[in-house]
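Input sequence (630 aa), recorded before submission:
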Amino acid sequence: MPTVKTYGNRQVRRDPLPGVRKTAAETALSSGAGVEEARAEKFGTIAHVAGGLARQAGGAYAQMREAEVQRADEVAHLEAMNGVLRWKQKRLRDPQAGALTVKGKAAMPLPETVGAEYEKLVGEIAKGLSTDKQRAAFARASMQEGLDLDMELRRHVFGEMQRYEATELTAFLENGVSEAVSKALDPPSVDKVLGTVIAAIKTHGPRAGLGPEALESQILAVTTKTHVGVIDRLLVADQDVKAKIYFEGAKKRGEIDGAALDTLETKLETATTDGLAFRAAESLWTAHGPKGETDAIELDVMETAARAQFADNPKARHATIQSLRERKAGVDASRADRKEKIVGALWSAVAKGATLADVRRMPEYLNAPGAIQVQVSNHIVDEAEQAANRDYTRGQRADGAAARAESEKERKSWGLLWQIDTPAVLGQMNEAQILALTPTIGFEHVNRLMVKKRGLDKSEDAVRAATIDENLFKTKAASAGIDAYSPKTDDEKADVAQLKEVALSAIAREQQETGKALSWERKDAIMQRIIDQKVFVSRSFRTDPEMVAALVTNPDDRAKAYVPLARLKSSKPKTLAKYVNYARSLKPVYATFSDELIEKRFGPQIERAYALHLLGESDAAVAAVFSEGQ
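Predicted structure, token format:
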């Protein structure tokens, strides 16, 4: 008979199997639910048991349990939404990286970019919730926050794009107007560019917040600006006729506002008149103007023709005459410049010793006006004759008439020099202009001015230093009773110019000897010393005048100059003692004379010797005085 095989002895373990199901009924875990759901079911079972107990205890426990569950759900929801709001604040409003700090067109992708980040955040937070109820509540709240987030971002993008569009529109209008104006000489191109600009205003203006009236105002402003620019460009190009035609067309179309309209009409009227006058002046100058460099400019003939041509147009007549006069002034100035260059070259050659034959072969001489040729030729001849006369006079030991004439000529030139020899005047002259003064002031003064001019041209510091010296001299001279600011007569001007030259030359010599610039105080002392050096000039039948030694240039005055012995005793005792001792050394017998006796014997010689010293004569000339009357 069949048998059943046995496994062997029964093996029984007391430990329960893990996760064993203790009931025949299906559970959440056995049905495949997750651990959390199983726990929830477990808690539900417990709650069910507890509910039974609670019912048995009168329902108090059930109420407590419901309150705790609700509290747990609410806290979980609060924590989840807190995470949303923290992220939202940082993502939107962080001062450095917040989405709301993004400007311009860079803000356009923000709703999609930030929205995707938000969806990811919400998903991560939802995973940490425990129950369906919590997840459902969070889903509803996060959805609303997401809508708010999207709305806020889109408002931001709208505002930024509106500003960006307005900025770009403004820039486009500016560039468009500039482009249209640049094509001023091609009106069809201007119209084409302007049409593009107006289309842009109509497209983008409403989105930039422009209403119908503002839109029309903007279009009028752009067309006005364009037309004004085009007309100005045409006028600059001397296209006044084209500018007038262009203006009339724009005005007829109503594309220029009232204020600009009045301005343009006035401007065009003036420009049209000026253009008409210019063309008329050109024609008159061609018909009646000079044909050569030396031809006379018959301005009266041209003006008469202009009056006849514009008898019924006063504005054009006046403008034409004005244009003719301006042209004459320009031609005169150009001729003067060319003449100045020629004269400068001629006198430069003369200054270097060129003979009359040499000068006459120069191209500048051949091109020079006749008056200049005569002036240069006469000057060379006169200089040669004067040199011969001086040699003859010196050979014959004449009475000094020639010397006096030469001195008078030099005196006159010093008066002219006063007007020129200042940093302000000399700094504005060129060398050709200075050389052209040769016939008037002579070579010596011309050379002096040339040296000073080249010194002024070195730097602004040189001009500044020369101006300071000039002002210092005027101050010192005025303190001595000499009007160096505005001398009235030619003699006064000559005195000022000559005294200044002596003072500044003394300063220049000392600076050259020391190799450095003198201080203001030292310059002041030198000028004061020169001004204080005075002599008397003997006059017959009247009081002898006292004069600054540097200004005694006339040979007759120099021959009669002296310094009273009484002044020497009071102001220069050491100098007087030096002359007394010199006189005492002339003869052995004088060695026994007292000072008083020497002064009585040699008084006139001492007075004369010191005057010659102040006048700048040599030591030999000073010593020669003491031999007089021996």
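Checked by second reader. The chain is about 70% helix and 0% strand.
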